[in-house]
Amino acid sequence: MVDDVDFIAEMENKVNSGAEIRLPEAERLLNTTDVQILAETANRIARKFSQDLIDVEMLLNAKSGSCPEDCSFCAQSSFYESKINKYPLLSKETILGRAQKAKESGANSFCLVCAYRSPPENDFNYICDIIEHIKKYLEIDVNVSLGFMTKERAEHLKMIGVKRYNHNLETAETYFSQICMTHDFSDRVNTARIVKEAGLELCCGGIIGMGETTMQRLELAYSIRDLSPNEVPINILIPKSGTPFESLHGVSPIDAIKTIAVWRFLMPTPIIKIAAGREVYFGDDDKLALRAGANGIITGGYLTTNGNDPSRDIQMIQDIGINQG
Question: Which CATH class is domain 4-9+21-316?
C-alpha cells in the first residue's frame, strides 16, 4: 500500500485527468495525517482550475428573524429565543446603500439574503424592483438567497439579472432530521435543481461542526457535487445562544482545513468559499484556508455574526499573492 504522500499525489493526478474521486479514496484523504501536503495539493488543484483568482462577496441580511423553519443551528428561527436584532424587510434606500458599499469595498458580488421559507408575493416583487435598480446603476454582480423557489420565480430572477442563487443543503441527508423537522432534505435539493433549470448559477454548500460524523461531511459533499454547483460555501458552526446547538463546539481548525481540502479534490471547478466561522476558528490565520483549496470568501459579516472589515480581507488576498476575481 502506498504511503499517504504518494496517495495524495495519485489523487491529484486523477483529478487533473478529469476522473472523479471515489468515496473510499475521499475517506483516506480526509483521514491523512499529512495535512500540509493535503492542503498544498488542494491549493494546486484550486489554482489550476480557477486561474489563481479569489471571489469576494459581501452579504446583506435584508430581513432578519421570524423564520418559520426550525433549523437547530439558526438564530433567526421563530422557534427559539435568540438574542439577535430582528427586523422586517429593509427599505429600498438602505439596501441600495449597502450594495453601493459592497461595490466601493472591492467586493465582486453583493448577496441579498432574507429569512423566509418563501417570500410573500409583495415582498418578492419589492426585492425584484431593488435588484433591477442595482443592476441598472451599479457594476456589481447580484446574488440572492430567498428560501424555497418556484420555477416561475427563479426564471424571473434570471431575467432581471440575478447571477447566482444561494440555497445550501446544510448537512448530510442521513443527519438532516437532527437539524430540521419543518422541511426535508429533498425540499432543499428540489429548489437547487429549480435554480439550475432556470439558468441561474447555483451556490450550494453547508455547515460543518453540527455534530455530524466525518463520513457525513463527505456524504454532504457528494450530494452537493451531484447538483453541479458554481459555488460551494463552507460554513463552520458558530453556536448561537437560545438555539438547540448553543453548546456545540464546532470543529478544530485542522479538521476544517482537511474538509476544505478534500472537498476541493471532490469538486475541482466550483468556487469553494470559506464563509461563516472562519474568523472564529482561524483567527488571524484564516489565510490558511485560501492555501488549502478555497478560492472565495465572504467579507464584512454574515447573517447574525460580524466578520472582518473588507479592507483587511482585500489586504490578506494581496499578501498571499492571489488575484481578486
Answer: alpha beta
